[in-house]
Write a structure and sequence with these properties.
349 residues, eight-stranded parallel β-sheet, globular, two-stranded antiparallel sheet, 31% helix, single chain, 11 helices, alpha/beta, 12 strands
Amino acid sequence: MPTLFDPLTVGDLTLPNRILMAPLTRSRSGATRVPNELMAQYYRQRASAGLIISEATSVTPMGVGYIDTPGIWSEEQVAGWKLTTRAVHEAGGRIFLQLWHVGRISHPYFLAGRLPVAPSAIAPQGNVSLLQPQTPFTTPRALELEELPAVIEAYRTGARNAQAAGFDGVEIHGANGYLLDQFLQDGPNRRDDEYGGSIANRARLMLEVTDAVTSVWGAGRVGMHLAPRGDAHTMGDSDPAALFGHVAAELGKRRLAFLCAREYLGPDRLGPQLKAAFGGPYIANERFTFETASQLLAAGEADAVAFGKLFIANPDLPRRMQLGAPYNEPDIPGFYAGGAKGYSDYLPL
């Protein structure tokens, strides 16, 4: 039976272990949204991961919804990301860029006064993350049918720019209540055109984006991130098993490098069904420990596990796991604080 320390082939790559670094927003790009040397240092430190999946990175200025997160739409951002890819490769690592559009999880503050866009004009509950004073989400503007090709092209351009920046591949962010997930689930998607209503219609934008991205990279360098519980940003679907089963099967037909799902262990999880429907490498993510991750692999319910907070606090996480060494404690106030503290100052063994 496989262990976390065994190699794994995902698409065109062979990973040296199955301990992946999950995408983790850290808000270190500054107001320019251009990646910098501090970020390169942070990712270099974690290059022993089987695969690093970068923090979510916006493919268009209209896809931004958080303070100081990076982009991949400009030449300056491509140049900035080259610092990171070079650093990771020099340290022997592999890194995919996560392509992101937040959709309605934004505010005019980030969008030069414009309304966020979404499948339907339905506001999520809650407040905009990290924006002070506390600011509720606004009601977004529903995207017109004729605007959707430009959204798809923004992902294609982001994929090309990721290639120019030296990444090993890309992961499409289809999870956590952001734009593609908003189209997917019938809670936030009330459209009555070919992008709403039936499961096939609601999955259409995600699959068209997937086809655009694979036209750049080839399927063997592209992964997808899903969140089948719909437990973020006021999401929800009337039949998640049917919906996500359809998506997994369609992605499997496209022979993507991997499917990753943010779904902690619990009685209502869909992971085993999604793995079977997808038919390729399946990566589990959320709240896993070394023990639970090992059990999942031994049971054949995942092929690798992506770790988040453990990788924040432990840049040498695979080594610590192999040695059974204690973990550093995460500096939670430093998650989004800016600067090196709580970011690149965690000590290895």
